[in-house]
Write a structure and sequence with these properties.
The complex is a heterodimer of chains A (about 950) and B (about 475).
Chain A lengths: L4 H11 L1 H5 L6 H16 L1 H4 L15 H6 L17 H7 L19 H12 L7 H12 L3 E2 L2 E3 L8 H4 L2 E2 L22 H12 L10 H13 L5 H13 L1 H14 L1 H15 L17 H12 L4 H17 L7 H6 L15 H21 L18 H9 L4 E7 L11 H36 L27 H21 L5 E7 L25 E4 L7 E5 L28 H9 L7 H14 L20 H13 L4 H9 L13 H7 L12 E2 L2 H12 L17 H5 L3 E2 L2 E2 L9 H4 L15 H5 L18 H9 L1 H17 L3 H13 L5 H20 L10 E7 L6 E7 L17 H15 L1 H4 E2 L1
Antiparallel strand pairs in A: 1-2, 2-3, 4-5, 6-7, 8-13, 9-10, 11-12
Helix pairs in contact in A: 1-8, 3-7, 3-8, 11-12, 11-13, 12-13, 13-25, 14-15, 16-22, 20-21, 23-24, 23-25, 27-32, 32-33, 32-35, 33-35, 34-35
Chain B lengths: L24 H9 L19 E7 L13 H5 L16 E3 L6 E4 L4 E4 L12 E4 L2 E2 L5 H10 L9 H9 L9 E4 L24 E2 L18 H21 L5 H23 L6 H6 L5 H18 L4 E6 L8 H25 L6 E6 L3 E2 L2 E3 L11 E2 L5 E4 L7 E3 L1 E2 L6 E3 L2 E2 H11 L9 E3 L2 E3 L15
Parallel strand pairs in B: 1-9, 1-10, 5-15, 6-18, 7-8, 7-9
Antiparallel strand pairs in B: 2-12, 3-4, 5-14, 10-14, 11-13, 16-17, 19-20
Helix pairs in contact in B: 1-6, 5-6, 8-9
Classes of the chains: A mainly alpha (about 950), B alpha/beta (about 475).
Chain lengths: ~950, ~475
Amino acid sequence: MRLSAAIAALIAVSIGETCASKDASHNGEALFALKVFPLLNSKCFACHGQEKEKVKAQLVLTSRKAMLAGGESKKPGFIPGSPMRSPIYLAVTRKHEPDWSAMPPKQNDRLTKDQVQSLSQWITLGAPWPDEQTRAKYTALERSKPRTADGLLIQTSGGLSEEWTYRRYQPKDLWAFQPIKKVTKPMNAENPIDAFILHKLEQSGVKPAPQAHFRTLAKRAYYNLTGLPPTPFEIYQFRLQWDKDQSTAWSNLINKLLASPHYGERWGQHWLDIVRYSDTGGYSNDYERSNAWRYRDYVIRAFNSDKPYSDFVIEQIAGDELWKMQPAKQRDPELLIASSFLRMGPWDPAMVKVPQARQIYLDDVVNAVGQTFLSTTMRCFKCHDHKFDPLPTRDYYRMYAAFAGTQLAERPAPFLKEENVSGFEKGRSMTQKMLDFATSRFEAIYNKQESAASAWFTAHGKDYMDERSRRNLPDEEKPPRHVGLSPEETGRKKVREQDKWIWNRRMERYKPMVQGVYNGPDPKSLNARSMRMPKSTPKGAPSPIHILMGGSLEAPGEKVSPGVLSGMGIPSSTDSADPYKLTKSLHGRRLGLAKWIVDPRNTITARSIINRVWQHHFGRALAGNPNNFGAKGGKPTHPALLDWLASDFMENGWQLKRLHRMIMTSSTYRQSGQHPDISMLRTMDPENKLFAYRSPRRLTAEELRDSLLKTTGELNPMAGGLPVYPEINMEVALQPRMIQFSIAPAYQPSRLPGQRNRRSIYAYRTRGQPDPFLELFNQPNPNDSCEERDSTSVSPQALTLLNSQIMTDRSIALAMRVEKEFDTLHLQVKRAVQLALGRVPSKTEWDSLKKYVLKMEIYHGKHQPVPVTYPRSIIRSLVEEFTGQPFQYKEILPVFDDYVPDRRPADVNPKTRALADLCLLLFNSNEFIYVY
Amino acid sequence: MFTDMNPFHCGRREYLYGLGSSLGALAMTDLLAGETISPLAPKKPMHQPSAKAVIMLFMEGGPSQVDTFDPKPRLNERHKLESKRSAGLATGFRFYVGSPFKSRKVGQSGLDMSDQWIHLPEVADELCNYRGCQAESLNHPEALFHMNTGSRLGSDPALGAWANYGLGSTNQNLPGYIVMSELALPQGGSRNWSNGFLPAHFQGTRLRPEGSPILDLHPPAHKTRQHQRQALDQLSQLNELHAKKHPHHRDLAARMESYELAYRMQAEVPGVMDLKGESEATREAYGMNQKHTEKFGTQCLMARRLVEKGVRFVQIFSGGWDSHDYLERGHSSRIRSVDKPMTALIKDLKQRGMLDDTLVIWTGEFGRTPDNNRRGGVYSLGRGHNIDAMTMLLAGGGVKKGAVVGATDEIGATATEVVHPIRDLHVTILHLLGLDDNSLTYFHGGRYKQLSQFGGKVISELIA
């Protein structure tokens, strides 16, 4: 499939200079061979070809003569030299109906503008129809030229068709497949980033915005690096330094924040968005992924310790393989934890056969690796060669083969001393309570059934056999199914059984295990309820991998061996016959892939992470789609800058903290959101692609919740460990949620405020039940990789921020805090504004807010709130799956036996409630929710 | 502590959108409400529509075609005989299951309906029974996602979200896409009415069957509406001062407007939800006076009221159709719970002249098999999941009346005529709404995405 330069050169000589030098658009024969014939072949011949029975409208288009003869219209298919009188041309324009029906009939098959143009030009040039041999010569000549007016030729491992293999690409679409260039800074500037940004601004005749106010800068830095607002005191400290020496103050601040443990929480969250972190597996059962949190903490640790990105990549893709290579006694469990990355996608093999379940997993993991590390949406070339990028479907399956032996298991891995294992005892006893309840209820019903069964056996003069052992007896020889049980009890039995699975599974989160992988052949059966390492070392080869035509297991094509993406031309092997191969042995496939990904010559990896970091600092990526660098993704606005940063990043040890420093100390980063020429810029650069000024952003869901807790002083900054359960809307917490055969257990918040009021990244994430507050503020769906958060303002957000119990609680907490700190309303109002907004109120504001509180004090004197109560159990109602009969059962909520709620309106006096009204407004204000 | 900073330090500059310098909350409302700025503002359809609104009755679990609208006498002949069909994952001995119900021809059009349908025959001549649709996923959540969002992954926008994206909503005080369900969410939960990658405005809003119909719709009991108004006025003062400091920031106005819309919704939603004004005759007709139809009846009546108020897309999820066993009891009880309410809904829409441009769809996520495997070691009279054949009803909105479209084989195992995948059904629904699936696209993740994923066909046989 690969080009052979020698053959091409030979053909070039035989065709001769005249043709070769002529542009195809002036040479009808060349045009026909290169453009027109292929389009006729792919778009027309299926219905207007040689096979008589299939020919539509009696029109055959496979020769010039047949085309001239025309079809049932009795008109010639074309008039040489005159496209506008040629039916075949008029038909493909799709603009001459009903005279000439639009062709091809399907809208989706329509010709591109270029194709229509080629057809027209060919007719204009007299519609020559060279024979096959001549056409072949033109084609060979064309293929010998790496670059023509039609674009670049890219060598890959080969497409499913010759057309694809030899198609051409526009250089601008290929930027991500071309080497990262060593560029020099276009002008002198203290900070290299400024050199590129200012240069482009200068070229566009735009001045950069001035530096932002110091307070704006402080807030910006705190939020961008830690996801939390600065306290008024921290702003004050910063200001003291700033007044002495701005640049020292600023770099000190950045260093301080990068050293904060909250830095890893903030940047870890960005990573978890991409990898789709969740504590459950999704689909019908939504089983808990016990100990998934260890991966979450690994990510946070990696950011905090500034682990080189290259190591971060390798550990996530092949941590278990590295672990296996370590001396037996020195194996580092951290590496197994890292490999949980390969377990992040939603997956459950219920109701699916093993090969399909494996395919679902492999498709998911291949796509995840592509999007995460290579900014390549792999799904796009699973069923066919990529429509736009030099990514043959063969490469999809070669990368798929790299994971063919990757099997899923909960693997033993001792807890590290860095890991937070607090709360295990309490958690275990709570889970045990739930499990005991389910077990006792199940057994009661089971025993009732079995005593009826036993009676049946006695009555029939047979020996008793329990449910399991009588399963395969013929119907006549055993009691009816669910004997002795009412439909109601039948339903309950199933629910309790499911509960037993669920709580048993949750007991596992206290065991030293990770959601890991191992290398081995496909297991015979799969059940997400329990995925264990095989007892003995797995032997045997991974399943052979074929190109699956149309992505279907039923249509295996050519067999492929493990390999990497060939389109960027970076070898993964020294074997010149197949430079893109990976090992075929069971172990080391993923390690080879990972090493290729972080090969400094890889054209995407460094660009990909730089682009993501840039996006989170500026709200807009340099290349518009961080998960898709292909032709259809957004092109980089500053390609040279991206390359410069990427080279610099790799040369200096792939370290992100260094990159943050470089970005944040630039004057570009410190710009104000206000620009003197804003009206002109709005027209000229509506999306601010020039980075001429700062674009504000709304807080993310987690930042919003964390900021509320920080402001009220309730935030427990403890890092890591078991997932925590914040209070969520109680209606949602208790609302029944269907899972396979049953209703999922109710959401029970953590018992103590200190346990609940942890940072949001530590909250339990269930695929089937998002936290309604976080979801409302656009926390992404963990089934899909999120490259950029949405931040739309919708009315339900307003309703929740004004009316929810969570917000009421926060407002009371802040009111109580300022009451504790200051005696007079005057100072309380000031303090509340200061804590929430990081500044003191203006005189006008201050007066107006004070008046408001006084007015509300009168109001609250007349309106007594209702105390909030918690249910200790709940009655569930379910339609029995098999019978359609409704039944009820009881679910216990033991956390509320000794629950410590937050302070509620009914617990405080009208004065505090009035002050809380003010606090609520501050939390609702635009100033609170936007970062400038 | 330092005290500097007057909020006016930036000086006065152009105000938001340059609209003047003293925009109060109310003025803001008026200015934005009529503007195309709102993504929910009504938009022109792409071609002449035959339906303006959709009511989708979603029978979660997968209703059985042969026990509802597609009778198979040949199947009944094979009752309890061994079946050699391979079906999904089921292994072991399989046997055919005849329908426990008798079927009969109803209406002038002679539609087939099992005898469990007592009321529906009254509107038979309004219905179009489609038998050619095929699903792709054997598992409930994926199949639900597929029928609702066109993709089994559960992360794409729902049909209702696309409809609102394409057409907007004629009532700016209500969400354009409303979902009602059992107390329990269907499998897959809110992903079934997700906005996916479309802006959040297009997400389905679930009217909760108990408690507050929309989460946090109302303030805690000790805060009155007037209290809320005062809070909003005070908030808008704060926001105005802030906006003066940030004249460049264009999202501020939209966010302020979202608060005003929230305030209007607080008044509007309870009004629509309040069924007190409905006559006794209406309540009776919808089955609201009987226990087994009360819930679905109330939701059907609500659906009619919502569509009347300009809501574009209403969905009702009704569960329990997954009859693997005890088919007779199960399906009979499910049919009874929806029969009377949906009959009333269609009659009511017709009587009000709304049926012509309201499309009603009754469907599940897939169909059921003609045979079953032994469960718990006994002959269990039920049916498995079937992706090769299913049945659905359509009414109003420009579809054929009193018609059967498509067919299944002699035992109802596989669709054989007018066979189409789910995406074609989606394309057809969009078409009836005046939308072209190929043009209704949204740029996301580097490409223009559409409901059908990669294009589909209009099922012209369904269209009147």
